[in-house]
């Protein structure tokens, strides 16, 4: 395992060009291009407005001298009827720009709507829709426009429709693809939890965040449209006399190309300059966007295989009456049947904080997301029981297929609060904090604007954000990372939820802010009696904050123990022992080696002691991929205490006391001394 693999997702180096690569070089001077483009387009717009007033009469005035060359009176000569070509070129600016704008508007509106519909439809329609669009894009837009224009009657209306229709597939594909990439971000997950429907999700949360690349396409598309319209007019399919645009003028000029070439110069130069200006705006916007874009973390990739059965830790013998979340034999499966989370069972009582700890990829987040009905597309969950319980109403089934309805969404939104890992991805960057914080209260609790605002201020105050009222008017980027995470906690607390899921809420923060965030979570738990599922790589943090700790390895729970056991270092499973051994402690810490399972995460930010007392242990090797789990214990290849049985026999569950369980052959083999407990046969434990 490399050190990079061990890093949390938001700390891994992003894929992208190295400094000095070709792409980086092309990004230079976005400001200059943008300025040139905007200036050019600005001048053209001014010209379009004023030209008919200034040159309108002169452009229509017939003269005795036809096909005149360039002169002081007629800078660009005259046409076949003696009209001044410079004046006509200036006047044609308005019609040319108007028609191009109209066609671009049609292309973008139709395309974005189509892309949105494709994205919100089910996976099958989406796949077919994208395939059809790919085929349409593979035909040059001008050829498509020519075909459409030829079918319709020649004229500007036909051309605008033809070019608009031909340009729409590009917008549709970009919209659908960008929406898919933004859909995985935390704030979209939150919005889904809040019960926001797909169309509103698209309008409010996705479109504003993909506006930038769409804007770039808009400028580039405008340049192409202008060229295409001029081309169709030039071919006689576009603007018809007595009206004229630059394409029309160019067609007239080309008839006398050999006798009076200057006639073609004016419209040709105008077309090129306008096209270049629009392209510059597009390129400048793209370069500026590239510079500011944060690189996305690499996508997770796994290979198909068959699920591997094993005994389960955490099946508490007695679920308390006040349990808020009860999960029994939870599996999260890929479409091919591979279990990413395999047979996880646990419960969280009212006011209890349960920690889940494990290496990257062990299934912590998927377990949590399944509990909030927020699994990403392509995955589904099954369970013997997965319920959010409420003393006054029926339990909410968290995995039942087809249970999505308004009441389910409302209960999920109100009863579960989520705090994500990356504070910068937790809020929609395009919306002010106020609207985002008050949304759930207004939509699901029908609070008035004033009540929702007061609640938001109260929670922001609780998380110790200064001047909470003015924070509501700020955008997320105006807050520091720690402030954003505190605002996220405030957002999660707004409905006074029964359960908070905190998915590595401190991993992206520096060590002082981490401590503050942990204090706030504890305070919220004490104030409201909120149950909490707290996920972390860091077993020391989990031991400090939580009441009970679940240890996950390769998609399964391998040990359940009390936080006191964690603090005292009383782990039974060799994996938990290794995590503890790899965790620096303020009283005994030494530097952690890079190749350790808990090492880099656990040691981040911890001060090393001047007097190293013990060396932190490393766990060689890496966890298996979900489809490569061995038939026996998944930890066996890395286990320092491995037995022969570990390699090919699934380990049994051993429960030495209520609330304590461990999935390990060592317990049954009597390899430990002085322990008491009940070994369950494998079948009984499942
Ligand atoms: N959308 C997905 N499609 C397919 N596989 C996925 C998906 N999301 C996660 N996985 C896989 O499921 C397994 C568990 O992932 P999960 O994100 O729950 O792990 P984790 O313990 O939370 O890791 P981390 O600490 O890095 O967030 C991993 O092998 C991961 O590659």
Tell me what the structure shows:
With 686 residues, the protein is of the alpha/beta class. Helix content is 49%, strand content 12%. It is built from 26 helices and 14 strands. A hairpin with a 2-residue loop joins strand 5 and strand 6. Helix 7 packs antiparallel against helix 9 and helix 18 packs parallel to helix 19. The site of adenosine-5'-triphosphate has 18 residues, from helix 12.
Give the key terms.
elongated; ATP binding; 5-stranded antiparallel beta sheet; transmembrane helix; binds adenosine-5'-triphosphate; MetI-like fold; ATP hydrolysis activity; 26 helices; alpha/beta; disordered N terminus; 14 strands; 686 residues; cell membrane; transmembrane; 12% strand; Rossmann fold
Q: Residue share in helices?
A: 40-55%
- Largest beta-sheet details: 9 strands, mixed
Count of alpha and pi helical runs: 26
Radius of gyration: 32 Å
- CATH superfamily of the domain at 323-581, please? P-loop containing nucleotide triphosphate hydrolases
- N-to-C CA distance: 31 Å
CATH architecture of the domain at 323-581: 3-Layer(aba) Sandwich
Total beta strand runs: 14
**CATH class bucket of the domain at 323-581:** Alpha Beta
């Amino acid at each position: 395992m490399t050190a990079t693999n061990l890093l949390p997702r938001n700390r891994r180096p992003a894929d992208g060009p190295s400094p000095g690569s070709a792409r980086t070089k092309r990004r230079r001077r976005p400001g200059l291009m943008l300025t040139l483009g905007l200036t050019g387009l600005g001048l053209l717009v001014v010209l379009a407005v004023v030209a008919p007033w200034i040159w309108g009469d002169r452009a229509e005035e017939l003269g005795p001298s036809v096909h005149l060359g360039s002169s002081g009176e007629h800078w660009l000569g005259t046409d076949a009827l003696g009209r001044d070509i410079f004046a006509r070129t200036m006047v044609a600016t308005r019609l040319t720009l108007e028609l191009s704008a109209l066609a671009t508007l049609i292309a973008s509106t139709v395309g974005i709507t189509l892309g949105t519909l494709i994205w919100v439809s089910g996976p099958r329609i989406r796949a077919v829709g994208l395939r059809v669009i790919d085929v349409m894009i593979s035909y040059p837009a001008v050829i498509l426009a020519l075909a459409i224009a030829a079918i319709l009657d020649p004229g500007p209306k036909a051309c605008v429709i033809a070019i608009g229709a031909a340009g729409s597939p590009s917008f549709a594909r970009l919209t659908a693809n960008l929406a898919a990439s933004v859909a995985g971000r935390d704030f979209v997950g939150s919005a889904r939890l809040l019960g926001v429907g797909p169309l509103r999700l698209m309008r409010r949360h996705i479109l504003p965040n993909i506006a930038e690349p769409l804007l770039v396409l808009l400028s580039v598309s405008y340049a192409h449209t202008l060229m295409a319209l001029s081309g169709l007019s030039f071919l006689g399919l576009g603007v018809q006399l007595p009206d004229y645009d630059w394409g029309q003028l160019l067609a007239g000029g080309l008839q006398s190309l050999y006798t009076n070439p200057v006639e073609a110069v004016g419209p040709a130069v105008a077309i090129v300059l306008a096209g270049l200006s629009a392209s510059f705006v597009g390129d400048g916007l793209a370069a500026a966007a590239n510079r500011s874009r944060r690189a996305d973390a690499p996508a997770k990739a796994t290979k198909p295989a068959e699920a591997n059965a094993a005994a389960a830790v955490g099946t508490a013998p007695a679920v308390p009456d006040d349990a808020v979340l009860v999960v029994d034999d939870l599996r999260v499966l890929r479409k091919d049947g591979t279990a990413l989370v395999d047979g996880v069972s646990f419960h969280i009582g009212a006011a209890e904080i349960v920690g889940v700890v494990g290496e990257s990829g062990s299934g912590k987040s998927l377990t949590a997301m399944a509990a909030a009905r927020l699994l990403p597309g392509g995955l589904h969950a099954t369970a013997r029981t997965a319920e959010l319980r409420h003393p006054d109403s029926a339990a909410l089934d968290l995995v039942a297929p087809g249970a999505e309805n308004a009441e389910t969404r409302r209960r999920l939104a109100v009863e579960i609060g989520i705090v994500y890992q990356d504070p910068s991805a937790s809020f929609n960057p395009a919306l002010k904090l106020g609207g985002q914080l008050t949304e759930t209260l207004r939509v699901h609790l029908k609070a008035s604007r004033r009540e929702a605002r007061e609640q938001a201020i109260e929670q922001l105050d609780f998380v110790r954000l200064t001047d909470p009222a003015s924070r509501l008017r700020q955008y997320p980027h105006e807050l520091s990372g720690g402030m954003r995470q505190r605002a996220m906690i405030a957002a999660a607390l707004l409905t006074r939820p029964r359960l908070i899921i905190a998915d590595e809420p401190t991993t992206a923060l520096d060590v002082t802010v981490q401590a503050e965030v942990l204090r706030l979570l504890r305070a919220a738990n004490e104030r409201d009696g909120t149950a909490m599922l707290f996920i972390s790589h860091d077993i020391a943090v989990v031991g400090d904050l939580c009441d009970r700790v679940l240890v996950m390895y390769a998609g399964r729970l391998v040990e359940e123990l009390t936080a006191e056991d964690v603090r005292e270092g009383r782990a039974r499973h060799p994996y938990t022992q290794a995590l503890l051994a790899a965790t620096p402690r303020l009283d005994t810490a030494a530097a952690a080696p890079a190749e350790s399972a808990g090492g880099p995460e656990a040691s981040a930010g911890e001060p090393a002691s001047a007097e190293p007392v013990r060396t932190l242990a490393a766990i060689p090797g890496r966890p298996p991929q979900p489809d490569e789990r061995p038939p026996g214990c998944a930890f066996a290849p890395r286990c320092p205490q491995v037995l022969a049985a570990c390699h090919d026999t699934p380990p049994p569950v051993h429960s030495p006391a209520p609330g304590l369980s461990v999935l390990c052959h060592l317990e049954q083999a009597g390899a430990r001394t002085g322990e008491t407990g009940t070994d369950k046969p494998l079948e009984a434990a499942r």
